Amino acid sequence: MNQQNDIRDDEFRVIGQHRTLPAPTLSEPGRKRKVGWVVLILVALLGGAIWLFWPKGPKPPEGVFDPVPPKPTAIVVKPKALGSAVDSLHPAFTEKLDTTINDVVLSLYIPHNTAAPILTVGAPDKETREAVLAFQAADIRADNREILGSFVQQGKILAKGSPKAGYCAIIDGKVIVGVAESTSLFEEASEKDGYFFRQFSLVKDGVLEENAQIKNKTMRKALCDRNGQIFVAVSETDESMHDFAAALVDLGVDNAIYLVGSHSAFGWYRDETGEQTYFGVDQHRQSYRNENYIVWSNEN
Fold it and tell me: Is the pLDDT of residue 219 over 90?
């Protein structure tokens, strides 16, 4: 086939320069789908590697994420007794503590090593060395000078009536200070040779008792029960009944009733050295035959 026209019928000739045909390629949409899959695979591999090798914090303690944490058991802490620890073999005496609550200056008179207190009618002998603490207890009526409110002395009923809600009962050697319009302790005291008297209420179950009818300010006195410890609190400054009672609440007193107040109300205490200190004015001893006292001593 040396000549241009030298070609058989079953052959054909390509005219022009010889070229290699390119391989067939994907269309544009197909190419994009392929690239997308590659990117997704790479992202998944990278994320798995980061999760696997990323440093992890300490495991949270058990129960931190409980939806309802267990309720802690309530612990009731009773207040410590006021005053110093005392050897029961020592003679009876009264400890005096001074404190300030809400700007109210208080003196606390705490009897130690004594028998249960008693109620006396008529001024007690202030020279007796057995009595270590004495305060006036129930009020005296202005019209007839009789004892105001129910009063029992060693089982004998000297007065009946309950114009005041506060009371003190001394039965079988136990002192009960409370607040109630009516109580069976009055009858029980009369049946068991006990003692009972009524006074204004100041604190009931740790809550202040209002005495709106008494608006003046003067020295205040109260018979208090704090976690079973019985003592007398006296304001050294003139206070309203409300402020005085509020101070007793903040002191932690459970129940408290009023004692005859004012600067003139007579009484005394004897300290550990045996020294006797008087407070108030020694007056009305002849005119008020029903003047009465609550007295602690080492012989009852």
Answer: yes
What are the angstrom distances between the C-alpha of 145 and each of 99, 120, 224? 35, 16, 26
235-244: per-residue pLDDT in tens?
999 999 999 9
Mark out the alpha helices in 99-237 (DSSP H runs). Answer: 185-191
Sheet architecture: strand order including 156-159: 156-159, 151-153, 195-199, 166-171, 174-179
Number of structural domains found in the chain: 1
**Kind and range of the H or E element at 44?**
helix 28-53
Residues 272-294: what's their mean pLDDT? 81
Q: Which residues contact 240 (CB under 8 A, 6 or more apart)?
A: 214, 215, 216, 217
Q: Would residue 106 count as lying in a domain?
A: yes
Out of 2-6, 82-86, 203-207, give the one with best mean pLDDT: 203-207
Domain membership flag for residue 24: no
Q: Would 7 be classed as within a structural domain?
A: no
Residues of the domain holding 281: 93-144+200-297
**72, 58, 93, 83: which is closest to 273 by C-alpha?**
93
Let me know if residue 84 belongs to a domain: no
